[in-house]
Amino acid sequence: MHFRHRAAAFAVPLSARSIIKGFVLMVSIVATQAFAQGAAAVPADGVYDLLVGTYTAGKSEGIYVYRFDTKTGDMTPVSSAKTVNPSYLVVSGDRRHVYAVNELPGDNGPANQRGGISAFGFDPQSGQLTFLNQVSSEGNDPCYLGISPDGKYLTAANYSIAADPGGSLSVFPLRPDGQVGAAVLTVHHAGGGPVKGRQDNAHVHSTVFSPDGHYLFAQDLGADKVYSYRYTPDGSRGLLGPTETRYMTLKPGSGPRHLVFGPDGRYAYLTSEMAATVDTLRYHDGKLTLLQSVPLTKPGFKGAVGAAAIHLSPDGRFVYVSNRGDANEIVIFAVDPANGHLKLVGHQSSLGASPREFAIDPTGKWLIVGNQSSDTVYVFRRDAQTGLLDANPKRFDIPAPVDFKLVAPN
């Protein structure tokens, strides 16, 4: 693993600024964001801002803002902001800034083209986005963003279509005015997996911080590994550093993608894209231990699969996972509070193609999913007791919808 630092951006020891082979990387984002949001007071009128990230190769212009009414499940358009392929969004803790990846070069672009990170000012009351600035993501196809617990840094996972240098994770300072600074650290993983064409090199797909804020986990689809790093923002050990275990190895060809922690921080859940599985993991002091692995598909399913996003209900009782390919569904699991294990509850069709991301609103009444290849968004009513989704959702037409973030307007 290679680390590249830009020393002018922050003070770290000289040894930490040199290029190192091995494992190192780090930053941080509260992995319990969803629970913190869900625990916040619901607006009196039950209305949130809903930000939708999209792919812009077709009719989409960028990020769309809607008013989402948790009493009715209705979405009302408010505004939009032009930016290229904002396929993943993250909102600052004070709700005043929004950061988006610019996923380039994409499937048809040149391998030497770098992606971007764009910063926007956001007024939650009016729902208006204002472009602030853009920097290079220092890699190909950035697909995930996180904000450190102290709010000082932004992390980006660069999936990478290029074999050289392969997937990477980059770290960016966040300025007081909300702008994003140039990358101060880029970490490249080495190696790949057995699946030709999908695992020829590293593919960092997400970076998630532990609930205690001390560790960062980087899910590498190409290497079949979950890398773990220690976060020391005071610079005493360098900003990022390897843990003793360094990484957890998954079954060859599984392709780990997204990770989410349970509300009490004892357990985490991991999707593996190519295997179409979800794993239950025990978490303790920077270490993840595999407890259980369950398939997303029904017995006898023979089509293409593609596990993607994973989220928990606001009360932490249920886990939801999107599965693409030919399955195109949301898979629902109940959580056993005694041991964190998952039990299948049911499958719900997304009613379209390629359900990449989705969101559960803070009240727990609704699940919002976008079908990237069908230009549709469906809002499913959710049963908080059983976890099941109503089979007759509301439909909204949005071009190539990918990511969803809900923000309280006040």
Write a structural description:
The chain is mainly beta. It has a single domain, classed as Methylamine Dehydrogenase, Chain H (7 Propeller), CATH 2.130.10. Helices cover 3% and strands 46% of the residues. The protein is built from two helices and 29 strands. It has helices at 14-17, 33-39; strands at 2-5, 47-54, 62-69, 75-82, 89-91, 97-102, 116-123, 128-136, 142-147, 153-158, 168-173, 185-188, 204-209, 215-220, 225-231, 240-249, 256-261, 267-272, 277-284, 287-295, 307-312, 318-323, 329-335, 342-349, 355-360, 366-371, 376-381, 394-397, 401-407. The chain has a five-stranded antiparallel beta sheet with strand order 1-12-11-10-9, with no helix packed on it. A hairpin with an 8-residue loop joins strand 15 and strand 16 (240-249). The chain is globular. It starts with a strand and ends with a strand. Residues 7-39 have low confidence and may be disordered.
